[in-house]
Amino acid sequence: MFFVVFLLFSLLIFRLGIVQIVQGEDYQRKIERTEDVTVNASVPRGKIYDRDGKVVVDNVPQNAITYTRSKGATQEEMLKTATKLAKLIDKETDQVTERDKKDFWLMKNPEKGKDKITEKEWKQYKENEIDETKIYQMEVDRVTEEDLKELTAEELEILAIYREFTTGYAMTPQIVKNKNVTEEEYAVVSENLDSLPGVNTTTDWERFYVYDNTLKTVIGNISSSKEGLPKEMVDYYTSRGYSRNDRVGKSYIEYQYEDVLRGQKTKVKNVTDKSGNVLDSEVIREGQRGNDLVLTIDMELQQAVDKIVEEELRKEKSLYGRHLLDRAFVTMMDPNTGEILAMSGKKLETNEDGKTEMLDFSLGNMTTSYTMGSAVKGATVLTGFMTGVNEPGDYIVDEPLKFKGTNKTKSSAFNRHGAVAVDEKTALMRSSNVYMFKTAIEIAGGKYIPNSSLKLNLEEGFATMRNHFAQFGLGVPTGIDLPNEQTGFQGKINLSEPGKILDFAIGQFDTYTPLQLAQYVSTIANGGYRMKPYIVKEVREPHTEANKLGPVAKETQPEVLNRLDATPNEIQSVQDGFRLVMNGSKGTARRYFASAPYNPAGKTGTAEGVYDGPKREQYLENGQELPMTWNVTLVGYAPYDNPEVAFSVVVPWVYEGKGKSSINNVIGRRILDEYFKLKEERMKNETSDVVVEQDIQLKDDKENKEEE
Fold first, then answer.
1. Is residue 37 helix, strand or coil?
2. Measured in whole angstroms, how far is the alpha carbon of residue 470 from the centre of its chain?
3. Which residues pair with 476 in a beta bridge?
4. What is the secondary structure of 537-564 as a DSSP string?
């Protein structure tokens, strides 16, 4: 035994000597020829939930075939692998460009390509008058349609695969196919990986929108694996560790919260030789999908509001032949916190087949603006109070106004001939234009004198009114946590037209967004606090179980942007006026809201203006004048004495000329009914759950006593 052990140790020492002394330098050189290359593998994005934990946006796993190009991979090697892979899978060729075909044809026919260069040009090339790049470009330019027809369907499929191989970085997995990969394709490729260097089978993911087009324009889009990083932002993303073929948020929520949703990539260390061939791979850090977002949106309410808007828009369009009407908007928010509960927008469009489609346009609540009419009169009344030209309880005579140099008479719809003294509450209830006109005149430093010219400090008057309107969120950013918010357009001030400030006072000069209108009425509802609206309530860490919420990583806190420079009594006075609009004996919305059990308050609005919608160019091309159209609006909140929901309804270009529409009031009543109906149903369910839990507890207590 001693002899055997001695012999084995001798052999071991002898072998170590050979390795270290005789072959040591060779092994050292081999070590020096290897490189450690760290790459990142993509992970699924975070999910998006509504406020009640219902999945809104998910990731659907899908089979995928990838290719990782080694640093030393040659054109011939990749083409050989692509040819083999083309026999195993079906690959669409719709992404192959004409330039791709020309390059491929030249690759397959190098001698024919050279024949397209003249002897004179070859001579210039040899004499360095033309470089290699120019020569190749000449070959490309001279490849004809007839040449390209030589490429067979099989070759085009090889080209489509080869094209994917050459996209992206070396050592970074590139998607070859992730759409409609069959189980057979997946299995047969997996079985042949040894003969397909760089090719692998894996599981990829695709973004899935549970509620189809509901809120889709606000949720936004992500780039596809083919698109990768947007061209204009490649440097920005690559400097933050992204690969060129990574999918990123392109718009709105998906874009705004990219850093949250992107996740932590799997980090893999590849050991390669100097030729770039992978010798070994090691996972350094396991990846983790992105954090989840919890929205403030109530998807059950959102769907109900979408349905109401769609139904009323179709009905108004078909019953009354409103040929310019094509959209309607609703924003609902918690006036005390700024949480967006629903943001609905619908738009009718004619597709290529001539059929009318109803599209989601929820984004229009913050990216499009309109003249809102009398709905903004609450801001005018409070501006009068805040500037000191009026006080709560002051009476102003509502009468037809006549100015020197014009045949037009400014009057209120309810009082076209006589003179009626109205206070601010009655002025709001009956929508008195003259109360607002005289308030604006006073703010601009003027005084109404019948049959006299208006002498106003117009610039100062506009500046004062716009600054005060901004306190409500009108004409300024609302602060919502989404990009590309529009603030509306300010009418151009012309010193020769002092009457424009009167139009401003009744909402027929500057334009505002439906979201601004909702923020404005929320400010009045909650007692004067302009709350910052937001649509993402929480950021949650991913949960290991499907469709479950993880721990809270970040929670959005309500934020007060400013407080109105008005007293509680002044704000209360406007609140009372808004209540009378919907419940007063002569309220403009009484017919629709007086019977509501939840005690609503609000303000109706109509605004006349030149049509500026999508058919504008049509009119101009035909040499026609743009028609005058009417927008109808509504703002409100409920309950009056303890507001929990505020809303805006905006329906532009409803009708032309004379006429009227109540679509704003109908939508307003239906969405409030739906809100309180859902609230009641949920309270009943909660009560039932508590009763069931109590019954279970009583039963358990009884069983325990019996056992004792």
1. strand
2. 25
3. none
4. EEEEEEPSSTT-EEEEEEEPPP-EEEE-
Which pair of structure tokens corresponds to residue 389? 């030209």
Strand partners, 554: 539
Q: How far apart are CA 597 and CA 374, in angstroms?
A: 25
Residue 665: pLDDT band with limits 50, 70, 90: very high
> Both tokens of residue 303?
């769907």
Cα atoms in the Cβ-side hemisphere of radius 13 Å centred on 378: 39
40-71: per-residue pLDDT in tens?
Answer: 556 889 999 999 999 999 999 889 998 888 87
Q: What would the mean pLDDT of 474-479 be, rounded to a whole number? A: 97
Provide the domain count of the chain: 2
Q: What is the 3-state secondary structure (H, E, C) of 496-528?
A: CCCCHHHHHHCCCCCCECHHHHHHHHHHHHCCC
- Cα–Cα distance between 532 and 481 in angstroms, integer? 9
Beta bridge partners of 203: 63
360 is in which domain, residue-wise? 300-528+564-683
Q: Tokens at residue 595, please?
A: 């019977």
Confidence bin at 304 (pLDDT 50/70/90): very high
Residue at 43 is within a domain? no
Rounded CA-CA distance 701/692 in Å is 14
CATH number for the domain spanning 656: value is 3.40.710.10
Of 338, 342, 334, nearest in space to 308 by CA: 342
Please tell me the distance from the alpha carbon of residue 136 to that of residue 114, in angstroms, as a whole number: 9
Per the document, the length of the chain is 708
b/e code 169-204 from CB counts within 10 Å (16+ = b): eebbbbbbbbeebeeebbeebeeeeeebbbbebeeb
Cα distance between residue 23 and residue 10, in whole Å: 18
Tell me whether residue 549 is in a domain: no
The bridge status of strand 340-350 relative to strand 174-177 is: unpaired
Q: In Å, what is the CA distance from 523 to each residue of 374, 559, 580?
A: 17, 13, 18
- Give CA–CA dist 110/503, Å, rounded: 74
Which amino acid, residue 151? L
Distance, in Å, from the CA atom of 382 to the CA atom of 524, rounded to the nearest integer, reads 10
The string of DSSP codes covering 416-472 is: SSS-EEE-HHHHHHTT-HHHHHHHHHHHTT----TTB-----HHHHHHHHHHHHHTT
Read off the tokens for 194: 């040894």
The span from the CA of 690 to the CA of 694, in Å, is 6
CA angle 690, 692, 694 (to 5 degrees): 70
Domain-ending residue, one of 115, 135, 169: 169
How far apart, in whole angstroms, are the C-alpha atoms of residue 270 and residue 194? 18
Burial of 555 (0-12, 13-18, 19+ CB in 10 A): exposed
Residues labelled as active-site residues: 374
- Mean pLDDT of all residues in 109-124: 90
Mean pLDDT, the chain, whole residue set = 89
| Joined tokens for residue 436 | 């607002």
Residue 202: partners with Cβ closer than 8 Å, 6 or more residues away:
64, 65, 66, 173
User: Sheet harboring 645-656: ordered strands across?
Assistant: 356-360, 340-350, 327-333, 645-656, 628-638, 601-610
- End-to-end Cα distance, the chain: 73
307 and 163 part of one domain: no
pLDDT at residue 278, as a whole number = 56
What CA–CA distance (Å, rounded) separates 666 from 17?
Answer: 95
Q: Evaluate whether residue 426 is within a structural domain.
A: yes
Give the end of a domain, one of 152, 169, 186: 169
Cβ-proximal residues to 95 (8 Å cutoff; 6+ apart), any chain: 160, 163, 226
* 279 occurs within a structural domain: no
At residue 638, the 3 state secondary structure works out as strand
Q: Alpha-carbon distance 320 to 623, whole Å?
A: 26
